[in-house]
Amino acid sequence: MSSGYLELDMDLERAKVLKKEEQIQHIKSLVPEFSVGGGDVRVPERWLIELGIGWVLHLPLADAAASAGELGQTYDALMTWIRALAQVVEIIGYTEPLFPEQAVSQLSNTFEEEEQALVLGQLQFARFFQEAMFKMLPFVDRIVGEALVASNGMETPYENLSTLLGVHGALSKALPQIHLASSLPQI
What range does the domain containing 84 cover? Predict the structure, then answer.
């Protein structure tokens, strides 16, 4: 391998590390903003807009079946949603090192205070990500509702099945990686 390739590879790796650090810092600034006053839902909504899926905030929650004819037009939206879900999962993974299990010093006189601060920080991150996911999930409900109405009791057309499998695959891949909330200590 020539030194040019090695330098390019090192530059790409540095760019990834910088991007990761920027995303961590951005989330670290959003979470306290979200947590002030009990959870300002506009903060995760703004984050979803930054991820390119702000349109999920405007989906009609009721009567998703009424727009069954739109399923074919949702492929681009589906791909955008799947990329955003992958990015959310990736960012959740980035935050894991912020809360190592042994982060609280056993020798500290303020052990309880440090432990409470750590748990509070974990809860704030978990609530932020939970709120963002709650905002994303109506899209899945809409896709499933549209597919059910489109099939009208008959075999689902290939396009509908393909869309549903795409959503299923994205969620199946993401769920095992999203364990932050389940690994939180109970208060």
Answer: 3-177
